[in-house]
């Protein structure tokens, strides 16, 4: 089931990469917060919205 469209993918993927970069350039234990960036990256790759899956929302209607 695809929930995320083309623009949404970019909006999720780019900030996900920015967050993930904290892992490589961050200091101390704070750098592990960058792993949160994996969530929007995976969501963009698999075309799903984690919050929509949790709450059962299907508001995004993608034209096929």
Q: How many distinct domains? A: 1
Largest sheet: none
Give the N-terminus to C-terminus distance in angstroms: 12 Å
Radius of gyration: 14 Å
Number of strands: 0
N to C succession of SSEs: HHH
Residue stretches low in confidence (pLDDT < 50, at least 5 long) are none
Q: What is the arithmetic mean of pLDDT?
A: 80
Give the number of helices: 3
Assembly category: single chain
Percentage of residues in strands = under 5%
**What coarse outline follows from CA principal-axis ratios?**
elongated
**What structural class do the secondary elements suggest?**
mainly alpha
Helix fraction? Answer: 40-55%
Structural commentary:
The protein has 64 residues and is mainly α. The protein has one domain. It is 55% helix and 0% strand. It contains three helices and no strands. Helix 1 runs antiparallel to helix 2. The longest helix is centred in the N-terminal third of the chain and has 20 residues. The radius of gyration is 14 Å and the shape is elongated. It starts with 5 loop residues before the first helix and ends in a 9-residue tail after the last helix.
Offer a quick outline of the entry.
By secondary structure, the protein is an all-alpha fold.
Give a topology summary.
Elements: H1 6-25, H2 38-46, H3 50-55
Helix pairs in contact: 1-2
Entry keywords:
single chain, 64 residues, mainly alpha
């Amino acid at each position: 089931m695809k929930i995320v469209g083309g623009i949404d993918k970019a909006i999720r993927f780019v900030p996900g990469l920015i967050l993930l970069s904290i892992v490589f350039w961050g200091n101390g234990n704070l750098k592990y917060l960058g792993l949160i960036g994996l969530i929007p990256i995976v969501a963009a790759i698999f075309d799903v919205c984690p919050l929509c899956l949790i709450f059962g929302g299907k508001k995004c209607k993608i034209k096929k």
